[in-house]
Each structure stands twice: as C-alpha cells, then as structure tokens.
C-alpha cells in the first residue's frame, strides 16, 4: 500500500457492481469469525472445558465493560457491541497475514461500521424512550440546543469513522514507506506498535459506541462517566 | 508543475507539522500527570494506565485528522486533474 490511501483495487465485477479487495478480505474475516463462533459454541457444557472458559472470559469482560460504562444490564447490547469490537480487532490485526491490507484501512469499511453505530443509536434510543421521548432529548437541556445536538449527532459519527480510518491507514502507510526505504527487520518494531494501535482503536470504537448508545438509551444524560469519554 | 500543486504540497507539510504541535504538548501533559498519579498511588497503576491509553489515543486522533487532511490534499485534491 504505497499508492493513494483512498483508492481501492477492484478484483472482479458482478454485473455492474465492482468487488474490491477490502470486500474480499471482509468476507474472509466474516467467514473465519462465524466459523470460529460456531465451532466454539457447538458443544457448550455446564462444567466448561478449558477452551470454553477462554471464550466465557472474553464475553464476561465485554459484559463488564458495558455494565461499567453504560450503567445498565448489558444483555441487549452485547451482540452488537461485542461483534463490533471483535470484528474491528480481527480486521486491524489481519495485516499480520502477508499480502493482506486491513479492510479498516479503507474508508468505506469504516463508513459502514460508523453507519451501523449511527442507526443503532437511533434504534436503541427510540426503543428505550419512544419516538417522542427520543426526539425530546434533542431539546435537552434547553430548546436553544436543538441545532447543536442535531449537528453533534452527525459530527460524532463522522469523527468515529475518520478516527478509525486515520489510525489504521497511517499505520499501514508508515510501514509501507519504511519498507521501501529499509527492507529487512527494520519495520518490525513499527508493526508491533501497529498491533497496539489496532487493539486500542478497536477498544475505543467499542467504548465510544457504548457511550453514544448509552446516552441515547438511558435516563440521566449528563453522567460524569459519559462526559469524560467524549472526544 | 503548476502553482496549485506547489501550494498543495507545501500546505500538506504545514498541516502535519503545525497540527502535530498541539497533540504533542497535550500528550506530554497527560503522560506527566499519569506518572505523577502513579507515583502517588502505585496500587491504582492498572486503572490509570488503561485510562491513559484511551486518552492518549483520543489526543492522537487530532494529529491523525491533520494527517488525513494532508493525504487528502496530496492524493485526492479536487483542483488537480
């Protein structure tokens, strides 16, 4: 990836729809994660095996994070937020496989993920408060704030998209530049840093989605913990 | 090479260099404050460093925005065909 970071390579076309490289990688990741989840949950027992304990710890950690960030029972939110976290983590770390660009290094994938969060905020907000109640949150704390709250709804989704795109893309780009300057062994520390950045960005994306959904779905919007996490 | 391309390359360099100043100062202050807090209360080091990493990533996003703008100027400039 040394060309334009905004261009994507078309592999083949179905009818008039071009299928690009990130789409193929995304399909591969979806297959791998889906198969992994199916294999892991195929034979669940009450007395867990060693492998089941590992997966239970992962799910339990995600539930604890949701409980401490949103201050609600995590059950309705675990599928969406957990999948977001696991998918973004897998996508960011897919650069470990030689020849694969992480799909999150292209802005289309990030835009899709951001749109999922955008509509999830509206869905959970309407489900928790009703349509009138959700629309009323735009007039909090006073009616003067309506334009600002409307703008905030879009800008925070946009910053979510650009944050993930910029961080992952810059990591891939820097490694490509270093590779073209000095080949063997020199990029390895930067690749390790890239792994850390990928994990932190996946965590931040999930945490911010939690904060946004929580602020739309739960009462008492101006929670201290919610305000702290905002960008 | 016409004027628009020269100005574009120059302004991309300006965007990254000046855009890095603020986040650099901010990250320095955040790390210094976290070190101070860990020195006072070593038993809270885990929580502090986890929050520090999230905060650093947030601050770093500002520099990343500048990088994105610079790359947009260089690779997706609407005035260069």
Can you walk through the features of this model?
The complex is a heterodimer of chains A (231) and B (81). Chain A is built from seven helices and two strands; from the N terminus they run E-E-H-H-H-H-H-H-H. Chain A has 231 residues and is mainly α. Chain A has a two-stranded antiparallel ribbon with strand order 1-2. Chain B is an all-alpha fold. In chain B, 85% of the residues lie in helices and 0% in strands. In chain B, helix 1 runs antiparallel to helix 2. Chains A and B meet through helix 5 and helix 6 of A and helix 2 of B.
Please outline what is shown here.
The complex is a heterodimer of chains A (231) and B (81). Chain A is mostly helical and 231 residues long. Helices cover 69% and strands 4% of the residues of chain A.
> Per DSSP, what share of the residues of chain A sits in E-state strands of 2 or more residues?
under 5%
**Biggest sheet details of chain A:** 2 strands, antiparallel
Distance between the termini of chain A: 29 Å
Structural class of chain A: mainly alpha
Q: Approximately what portion of the residues of chain B adopt beta-strand conformation?
A: under 5%
Task: Tell me, briefly, the overall form of chain A.
Answer: globular
Regions of chain A with pLDDT < 50 over 5+ consecutive residues? 221-231
Helix content of chain A: 55-70%
Largest interface: A-B, 21 and 14 residues
Basic shape of chain B: elongated
Number of helices of chain B: 2
Number of strands of chain B: 0
Helix content of chain B: over 70%
Kindly, what is the distance between the CA atoms of the first and last residues of chain B, rounded to a whole number of angstroms? 12 Å
Largest sheet of chain B: none
Stretches of chain B where pLDDT is under 50 for at least 5 consecutive residues are none
State Rg of chain A: 20 Å
């Amino acid at each position: 990836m040394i060309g334009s970071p905004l261009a994507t390579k078309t592999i083949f076309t179905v009818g008039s729809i071009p299928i690009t490289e990130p789409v193929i990688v995304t399909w591969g990741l979806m297959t791998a994660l889906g198969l992994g989840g199916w294999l892991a949950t195929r034979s669940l027992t009450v007395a867990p095996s060693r492998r089941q304990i590992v997966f239970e710890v992962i799910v339990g950690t995600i539930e604890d994070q949701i409980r401490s960030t949103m201050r609600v029972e995590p059950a309705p939110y675990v599928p969406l937020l957990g999948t977001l976290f696991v998918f973004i983590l897998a996508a960011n770390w897919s650069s470990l496989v030689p020849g694969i660009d992480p799909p999150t290094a292209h802005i289309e994938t990030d835009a899709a993920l951001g749109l999922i969060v955008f509509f999830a905020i509206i869905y959970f907000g309407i489900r928790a408060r009703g349509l009138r109640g959700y629309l009323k949150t735009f007039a909090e704390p006073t009616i003067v704030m309506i334009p600002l709250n409307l703008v905030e709804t879009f800008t925070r989704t946009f910053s979510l998209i650009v944050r993930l795109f910029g961080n992952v893309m810059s990591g891939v780009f820097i490694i490509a530049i270093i590779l073209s300057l000095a080949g063997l062994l020199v990029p390895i520390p930067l690749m390790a840093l890239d792994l850390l950045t990928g994990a932190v960005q996946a965590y931040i994306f999930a945490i911010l989605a939690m904060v946004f959904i929580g602020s739309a779905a739960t009462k008492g919007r101006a929670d201290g913990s919610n305000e702290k996490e905002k960008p | 090479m016409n004027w628009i391309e020269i100005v574009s390359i120059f302004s991309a360099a300006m965007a990254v260099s000046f855009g890095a100043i603020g986040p650099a100062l901010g990250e320095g202050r955040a790390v210094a404050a976290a070190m101070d807090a860990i020195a006072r209360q070593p038993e809270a080091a885990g929580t502090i460093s986890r929050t520090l990493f999230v905060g650093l990533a947030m601050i770093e996003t500002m520099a990343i925005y500048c990088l994105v703008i610079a790359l947009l100027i260089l690779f997706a400039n609407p005035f260069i065909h």
